[in-house]
Amino acid sequence: MAEQQEQQEAVIRHATKEDVPTILQLIHELAAYEHATHEVLATESSLLSTLTFSPSPPSSTSTTTGTTTPASTGYAKTLLIIDAPTSTVAGMALYFYNYSTWRGAPGVYLEDLFVRPAHRRKGYGRLLLGALAKEVLRVGGARLDWSVLKWNQPSIEFYEGLGAKMMGEWVGMRVEGEGLVALTGKGSAEGRGEEEEEGDLEGVH
After folding, report:
1. pTM greater than 0.90
2. Looking at the annotation, which residues are catalytic?
3. Exposed, middle or buried, 53 (CB in 10 Å: 0-12/13-18/19+)?
4. What tens digit of pLDDT does each residue of 59-68 get?
């Protein structure tokens, strides 16, 4: 009963450009939880240039009544959950759209889900995931996907309790940094080596 009341006292909204410092702080807090603060390269500038933001509300210092900052188009969106009693940002869900060829439908990939320790056990994580599920359905999507660290058993159990299933048959793959530069040299027919001929190539669906 207490959790339901706290959920009713939370507000979820998309981030505006003014929220960038908070988003960056949340990213650092999540990285600290995952013991990976040294891996965070994001800056306020990079977030401003790559995220999608909702229109900013009119500024009290604006010389034009009712003037708002227009929405911007980037590669990912951020949902913020606000703890209404304290008017503080309690957490975020940063996501982008993906696509399933087998389903022939779009979906949502959750890049980061984070609720600050002081606001946990209030149902805020469930509320954020519920908002993302609504977004999947809104765009006619088929799936909501995300990754979780193998050692994070509490989160795994939480997600499974919500109906999520582990994709044990899949292994994550990544190319980054100098590997990306090296990979561009294999784009031509001349660059294709024997390693490509030795096995079948397959991708996600």
Report:
1. no
2. 159
3. buried
4. 655 455 555 6
